[in-house]
Amino acid sequence: MRPRFNFMWFWAFVAMLIIGYSMFGSSEQPPVEGDWRMVEELVEKGYVKGIDVLDREQASVYLTEAALDSLAKDDRFKSMPRTGAQIKFNTGGDVQVFTDKIESAEQRAVDNGVDAEPVAIKYQRSEKGWVDYLVDFLPWILIIAVWFFIMRSMTRGAGGGGGGGIMNVGKARAQVFDKDKKQRVTFKDVAGLEEAKVEIMEIVDFLKKADKYKALGAKIPKGALLAGPPGTGKTLLAKAVAGEANVPFLSISGSDFVEMFVGVGASRVRDLFEQAKQKAPCIVFIDEIDAIGRARGKNSGFSGNDERENTLNQLLTEMDGFQTNTGIIVLAATNRVDILDKALMRAGRFDRQIEVGLPDVKEREQIFGVHLRGLKLDAAIDREFLAKQTPGFAGADIANVCNEAALIAARHNKESVTQEDFLAAIDRIVGGLERRNMPMSPEERRSTAIHEAGHATVMWRLKNCDPVLKITIIPRGRSLGATWYLPEERANHNVEHFMHKMAGLLGGRIAEQQLMGITSTGAINDLERTSKTAYAMVAYYGMSPKVGNISFYDASGQRDTFTKPFSERTAELIDEEVRRIVEEAVTLTRDIIEQERANIERLADILIEKETIFTEDIEAVLGASAQQLAKQEAEAAKRAAEAEVKSVEAVVEAVEVAEPTTPAEPTDKE
Length: 670
Ligand code: ADP
Ligand code: ZN
What we know:
The chain has four domains: about 10-130, name from scop; about 165-295 and about 310-355, Rossmann fold (3-Layer(aba) Sandwich), CATH 3.40.50; about 365-430, Orthogonal Bundle (Helicase, Ruva Protein, domain 3), CATH 1.10.8.60; about 440-550 and about 565-625, CATH 1.20.58.760. By secondary structure, the chain is an alpha/beta fold. About 50% of the residues lie in helices and about 10% in strands. The model is unreliable at about 155-165 and about 660-670 (pLDDT under 50). Helix 12 (about 360-370) crosses helix 13 (about 385-390), helix 12 crosses helix 14 (about 395-410) and helix 17 packs antiparallel against helix 18.
């Protein structure tokens, strides 16, 4: 890149020149200000040697040596310079009047018998120096320069590079991926998302075999909306559609339409569709459509909204405008379907909505598969285990884990990426960087160890808690320690699940209190999650008998936060019930911790020694976990049930053998 010329220095230099010129350009005494009367008087006396007239108006009067001497005592002329012009005056601008006046004054001098040379008159026209021009134009230059810089930084900021410049504000800066490009994305690159793929395959089919549909008179849909959390592969899916259909792909982000200038958004939309028509058949992809597609008329009151409404209206007009057979399909992505303007979803616009959710275990395993392709791996990578370790991760997070693992392996100069590196990468992404050398006093370490051991022990003893994987007291990010568990991906929760979950969360704080007599700030996150769970139980899931089977949950997200949909009395009832539920969870936790005092102390000692301990270490202290026991019990029950079925079958058989013609009596009577 060429080094950029810094304009600041240029302007600083110019400013210095101007200041210097005005300060040092005329260092002598300035001439005395005069007027016609004074000049006529001087000419009459024969004191004037010559007059220079600049631009017909500004006259500089030069006096004779004799005059300078005799006038030195005159007050009016005291500050007169000896060299250069002595007097300046304004002639009034008329050359004819000027010569007449001077001539008549000279005549009077002759009449009075003064012996003097005639006044030498010179007319001049000013030639402005470049500095004078600069001084005249400087304000304008400055204004234009400032404006230019603001424009430039503004368009650059919004456009993300390329094609900037003030002349192009109205142009849509869509990224174009042409079909013959090498890095074509296909469905092979998109793991999981099976339902979304099926739905979107239809769209590929519309583009590929448009004639088939047209022959039957079917209208091809114009657009589809991909809805889901960030990083779940919406962009990837849209690119894959273009890749599969082998058509160009125009991608633009909703925020690219939002500019500070009025009308720019609308004109960019127009331009985008202009480009698309030239490339048809093609796919237009608008990311973050909520930036422009937010419901109109809500929260208006900020002037910026008008501009967004214009942009949205233009988008609606464009989508209505093109015929269904032009071969343009508009895909849009958002993670906030609920706030979109309903007009966008009307038939003939984004009439299909495709859900792109967070991946489940199986899908995460497949996504790992996609992203492990490019890495040099150690043979022993267990994808299934990695998928289990990453609940709640979106595809983008998994891509990030894979890259981070490779970075960690490289930092340790390894030949290939190992399972260990992946686990370190996951830890890092979940918890932030390890801060091994954060100063911690021995007491702090001990209370952290007791806190984490408390969590782990309570979770170990309650069958509806998630299985504990490891405990660590290495500070990471903003936390001092952590208990890691494998969340069971349950779709449905009951009261007992919630109670156990809250007890697990409270385990840390209560262990600190019971074993060390300390109440610390370290439990803020635990308490927050406990309270939220309790509120959700009462106000959302209808799990409090006193409040009843009522839910104040608002799935549409439209309710503003200030008005509560219940009375003061209900609010008090909710608070009361939340308190009761949390108290119950606290009692449950206290009992466990009281019973396990010695074990928690032992776990804490091991933790302080090893810093990180795993399932096996915990099992050595606490024995089998409640989850394991529950599983064994369930298996035993299943076996027993199977055995019973077998024995019933045997009886039936026996009956059939004994009396083949009469059916067996039912055993249970009603
Ligand atoms: P979104 O548009 O939903 O925010 P992207 O499509 O931009 O997410 O995804 C970001 C990155 O995450 C992709 O480039 C890809 O590397 C990875 N990714 C996300 N979902 C998947 C998936 N289902 N399969 C493979 N990679 C994925
Ligand atoms: Zn905690």
